Amino acid sequence: xxxxxxxxxxxxxxxxxxxxxxxxxxxxxxxxxxxxxxxxxxxxxxxxxxxxxxxxxxxxxxxxxxxxxxxxxxxxxxxxxx
Length: 82
Prior knowledge:
This protein is 66% helix and 0% strand. It is mainly alpha-helical. The protein has one domain (11-77).
């Protein structure tokens, strides 16, 4: 994995997008661990929560990349730090 792999994973999520995903993941995690969500729904939403947390940590959403979307501002997309 060289520069190509890193370049293809530039941030495409805004701070608001990342924050909302983290909040949703924490809420879903809480509902699962306290027993409010059980069974299949708990598994599906638990997996979705993990995906939300991982994409928020890295600031990169593969689905956005496939769809050609981005919620990040231009300086974040190019890798420049503010």
